[in-house]
């Protein structure tokens, strides 16, 4: 069973101590499971988006579809935490993931008929599903792990998730290897994405509810098994007056704002089709490196949790300044009206190196920026109910920024203007996050949010199928 029993000298009660984390109902396995789900669904979506224009030469359809997506995502991201608390992870995640298959299918349809309507409707439906998925993911990733290892678990999730982007980038790279001219990706590319997304949808059925997840010290993520619609609506509305969430707003807005610029106007404009697929493999691979690096800082750099937060935010802020400065230098070499010849990894020689390293660095920074936000959110509470709402609020505001970004690109805002908007908003975020850590993050792992810590449980709580999920 992987546990040993010890007797408390004072109370005489028998408690257990874990010998292994590789139980199905352990936080590690469950975080890996949600990582695999996101590997298959949003990981493939990221690879599709990262090609620029969703793999289409004309970016109009994907810009409009993504505007619809992020508009509904903004609403259901905020509501998603409450829905998660009512339905539990399996139903919430299954409903969310199924919408990804529809979205990829819409662009398979668009490849033949060039009708935007289906893509826009599919984008709006995906926004609903993504709101549910990411609220559930945020709750699992921030509440299941022990408090002192949340950075590590975030890195584990982010690495598995972004491996989907790496493999997703490999699909168009291989299938379009001989097509150096500016054309839309072939049908097989979209079918490959749909296949992985369908697998991810099925995998959601293996996610356990928080009441059945047992940490190595015997504590559970929550004791609360039920929630009501009215309760969740009231708690969600309170978030808009919660000073902690308000300090997160600029970072939340910034965290998806740069995708349309990086995908469409760097990877999509500077590189040909096969090279943009290759770039995506490295972009999402860089995310794996970035999440592991910043996760180590947030968990191991200092004994004081607050000090780890300050150092982590400072490191990301410094990299942010350097990478966006490099982006500015690159952007000054071209504009939407004066585009250079498309770069190819085989024939462009040294001209390929600089833009490639920049795009790689954008991926590195993205993972560090978002992992930083998740760590801060995870440090604000420890129970699944609270953190699902916090994560939903973050994803909702993030998606509002994403909706604005795709319309900024659709309305032909200058490329240099888009870069300045992104750089400015990320820069504003850092002092506010420092203030949030200073005021709200405690050095000691005190139980102030209703989570059970170190409670004694019987051996039955380690079993994977004998306890009702309460949802």
Automatic annotation (TrEMBL):
What's the protein's topology in the membrane? Multi-pass membrane protein
Q: What is its main location?
A: membrane
Q: What Pfam families has UniProt attached to this entry?
A: UNC-93
Task: Write out the transmembrane intervals.
Answer: 27-48, 68-86, 93-110, 116-135, 156-177, 189-208, 241-261, 281-298, 310-332, 352-377, 420-441
Q: Where is the composition biased (Low complexity)?
A: 459-471
Q: Which UniProt keywords apply?
A: Membrane, Transmembrane, Transmembrane helix
Query: What Gene Ontology cellular component terms go with this record?
Result: membrane
- State the compartments where it is located: Membrane
Q: Where is this region: Disordered?
A: 446-471
| UniProt KW DNA-binding keyword | no
- What name is this protein filed under? Major facilitator superfamily (MFS) profile domain-containing protein
The species is: Papaver somniferum (Opium poppy)
